[in-house]
Amino acid sequence: MRETKTIREKVQLLLVVMLPILITQLGLYAMNFFDTTMSGQAGAYDLAGVAIGSSLWLPVFTGLSGVLLAITPMISQSIGAGNREEVPFTVVQGLYVALVLSIVIIIFGGLALKPVLGLMSLEPEVHRIAYHYLIALGFGIIPLFMHTVLRCFIDSLGQTRVTMFITLLALPINIFFNYVLIFGKWGFPELGGVGAGIASTITYWCIFWVTVYFVSRVEPFSIYRIFKTFYGVSLAKWRELLVLGLPIGFTIFFETSIFAAVTLLMSEFDTATIAAHQAAINFASFLYMIPLSIAFTLTIAVGYEVGAKRFYDAKQYSKMGIWIAVGMGVVAGLIIYGLREPVSGLYTNDPTVARLIQAFLIYSIFFQLSDAIATPIQGVLRGHKDVNIPFVMALVSFWLIGLPTGYVLANYTAYGPFGYWIGLITGLAVCAAALLWRLRVVEERVKVELTQGK
To answer: Which of 108, 169, 282, 284 has a CA positioned 20 to 30 A from the CA of residue 345?
Structure first.
């Protein structure tokens, strides 16, 4: 990151930072995408099992890794303020927190996995695939979370092309092991959907060790000597990280876990409906990586400018990022509408499942428009370290408005399973409106502080 003087310079810098993040996010999610689509070619049971496993894993991963995203604004503001000596200490404490979170997830997952799957009225084969898929993923949790911390460090320096390179390097590894383990090629066992979980774990370990190499050996990361100095556990730094990170994590968790809750509620429908619902969610989530990448970029840019006390520049970045996201959201909606039929063919050869996927995709267009507003604003607010009010907004929007609306429409109207999607759309729209209001409040507060000379 560097100081910019003109709008043109800001747009150029924003795009330079954002495009690698976007490619990185698309690459990371492509692993989940290929897990689901390649499993779908193995059969409807494999598609449903992997899709359900992914829907349960995604909110846990995004929510708890969201806690670690606090590393980005912490480091960005430290660098913007010229306090570079704090960076290695912050990163190491983040790695400690990542390790603890990983252990907690593994223990909790071991205890809760069977009861949670037992709440769903799944056919035995779907239940088996989902269970063993998640067990396989469990062996990759520690490297995945520690990689997240190192990635936040790399991105906070504006070196987003490095994480892009690492992700693009890992993607063919994931595809290769998916191919040989799902379909039993080249002497490997034919594991179906369970093989997708093993392939993901192998990939997580690969990207972790490659990231460690870059951080320890390649400039400008190596000059911070992250692994050269031993730092003991600092509860004060943990507290700072968790005070900022927990609201971020819970905000993301409430947004993503509502999809898992809908999956649980939709288990009353047949396997074809469940598979179609999960396939459509999978593709819509793939496109969600666009506003999410813009949000990550805005956190870096806004955090850097706020740390340097250049609040007007931070506001300019905010406006540009949101308008870019809205434009891309419109394009994403057009892509879904125009390509819904070939997209359904990526997931299944079953005509019944394909028709249902296409119907669900029409509803997902409205996701793109709400996410194009809400998600970038969340990134801006994180750059300001304003996380508590957005957390409450997410809780109310998704769980007190969106989910009850969906339940009523699905069970007491003719909408059936599509009622849950209308509820999701409602929650996202309410959250977008609330976050827009919050952004105005924060920017007005900053304006007043500048006027008063604070």
So the answer is: 169
Instruction: Give the CA distances from residue 318 to residues 17, 27, 72, 179, 298, in Å, rounded to whole numbers and listed in that order.
Output: 14, 25, 17, 42, 7
* Cα–Cα distance, 263 to 420 (Å, whole number): 9
Tokens of residue 239, six digits: 């507290």
Measured CA to CA, the distance from residue 115 to residue 415 in angstroms comes to 29
- Given a contact cutoff of 8 angstroms between Cβ atoms, the answer to whether 432 and 373 are in contact is yes
Helix boundaries (H) for 43-140: 44-68, 71-80, 87-118, 124-138
Nearest to 128, CA basis, from 211, 194, 210, 59: 194
Q: In Å, what is the CA distance from 272 to each residue of 15, 109, 275, 287, 290?
A: 41, 27, 5, 23, 29
> What mean pLDDT, rounded, does the chain reach?
82
- Residue ranges of alpha helices (H) inside 308-349 are 311-347
Contact present, 152 and 69 (Cβ < 8 Å): yes
Q: Which residues, other chains included, contact 202 with Cβ-Cβ below 8 Å and sequence gap of 6+? A: 140, 173, 174, 177
As a whole number of angstroms, the distance between CA 154 and CA 96 comes to 17
Q: How many CB atoms lie under 10 A from the CB of residue 259? A: 20
Q: Cβ atoms within 10 A of the Cβ of 445, count?
A: 12
What is the rounded distance in angstroms from the CA atom of residue 106 to the CA atom of residue 146?
14
CB 356 within 8 A of CB 276: yes
d(CA 238, CA 233): 8
Query: CB neighbours (10 Å) of residue 104?
Result: 12
Contact partners, residue 82, CB within 8 Å, separation at least 6: none
pTM greater than 0.85 (yes/no) = no
The span from the CA of 443 to the CA of 15, in Å, is 23
DSSP annotation string for 386-431: --HHHHHHHHIIIIIIIHHHHHHHHHHSTTTTHHHHHHHHHHHHHH
Residues 103-118 have a mean pLDDT of 82
Q: Give 211-247 pLDDT, tens digit per residue.
A: 999 888 877 777 778 787 777 878 888 888 888 888 8
Q: Residue 354 and residue 444: Cα distance in Å, rounded?
A: 49
Q: Quick one: tokens of 242?
A: 């968790």
- Angle, CA of 37, 38 and 39, to the nearest 5°: 90
